[in-house]
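Journal club prep, notes for RB
We'll compare a predicted complex against what the paper describes. Inputs for the tetrahydrodeoxyuridine case:
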Amino acid sequence: MTTSKTAAPPLQGLSDYARDARKGAVAPYSNFKVGAALLTVDGEIITGCNVESATYGLTLCAERIAVFKAVSEGFRKFSAVAVVADSHVVTPPCGACRQVLWELCGDIWVHIADLKGHKKTMRLSKLLPEPFDKRFL
Ligand code: THU
């Protein structure tokens, strides 16, 4: 797991990728479109958007699509994820995404932003304190 006390890197550029990825969202049920962009330690960017199912429960969030795409393409080490939605408050990743991000990316920076330019950056460990993971198995 990556853990360091250093300040967050500038993540505006990553956020722009998430904003762009959001345009691909398939969200006919909630009308809530989300984009995510995952940054690898080597500077590669893998994006995702939410894709909804008529059964609702099979819907996948933008963050999990980005991380599963990345891992399936062979990427293993990440430093940050940006998430963009159009909300009245900046939207943090849901609980399921926090868990999956923790297990596959470690304690990355999480940069959340809306379309108006409001933004917030924090470590994933702040969003998921005391996580369950392979250390307990
Ligand atoms: N959603 C995301 O894509 N990411 C989040 O962090 C929160 C929620 C999606 C799932 C669903 O398609 C819609 O937003 C409403 O919950």
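Talking point for the session: The first strand starts at residue 34 and ends at 40.
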